[in-house]
């Protein structure tokens, strides 16, 4: 068994410094900052390049590490239960926060509301929100792909995960005849993680380019400060909700299950969280999340099984944001929502965050589903688009934190490996 890689704390400081420097450069020389986009895109592509093979090998290693396939049931049930519970809690926090702060009441100029609504561009041909039937059907179809290579090309991870679990489960029943394949998968997984460690050596530079270009573009457009001044309370409400979930709810779950200090664990995951903020992509951050969680002491069998699945269907930050955004839009345009309407938003946001990932323009379409569930006008989605790119970074970091804590929680349900027989 290979030794877990160890983090350099200095790298975390370099990444944090790169983000601060990038924001400073973007604010001071925004037009120049946009030229760093190519460097950021190269780094992002390098991360995404290894996502599919790493997911395939890591999930297989996780299942193979269980030994008897029948032992997969308890960890699997624990993982799904954790995902559902934390997502529901996130939605509830979003609803409570936005109802207490009421960011849409008397804060947005009616002229701005009309202007932003008129500028909203819905996905082509999208005149009404997809129903929940579409979401549930899409979720079912996401599980199985008729062409695994096409799924890999489109980075559709869920069918790859399902296939990897199925193949690895079968391998555990014929272990004497698949020794060579098991060795190949295990060593390939170790090699890919070593590649991640090498890539992280240039992460501060790549992250600097990513953040500089995106913040520089927002600053160069000239309207970011103007629009955030109008919907600043909404921005604050979502960030406060995400902070409560990230620094109170998830650490409490971690402590209650593991009896360990959650904030020490969060500090150990800092490289993954900073990478998530920089890339705004749970999938792109997945290689770093796996490596950080293992270095933090989480069972390798748990990280390899739980984190890839969580990166696909566990979206705490996204669900919280969608619930809060829907209530904000209703408040801003004077649309009265009853308690039953808010319950519908809660259920819809929970399911949409899980089941809408395969829909084209998923982020926008997911919000359309939530708005349409309670009859909110879709064109007012423009109210939140100005700051969506920045909030996306915060909620992605929360998504990644939820996945990593899930790995530690589910790890407590995985039995210790049986000692290898001595030849």
UniProtKB/TrEMBL annotation:
Example of a GO MF term: symporter activity
A Pfam family matched in the record: SDF
Membrane topology field: Multi-pass membrane protein
Alphabetized UniProt keyword annotations: Membrane, Transmembrane, Transmembrane helix, Transport
Compartments where found: Membrane
GO CC field: membrane
Presence of keyword Metal-binding: no
Gene3D superfamilies: Sodium:dicarboxylate symporter
Segments traversing the membrane: 12-34, 46-67, 79-101, 148-170, 191-213, 233-257, 343-359, 365-391
KW Phosphoprotein (keyword) present: no
Name of this chain's protein: Excitatory amino acid transporter
Organism: Rhodopirellula islandica
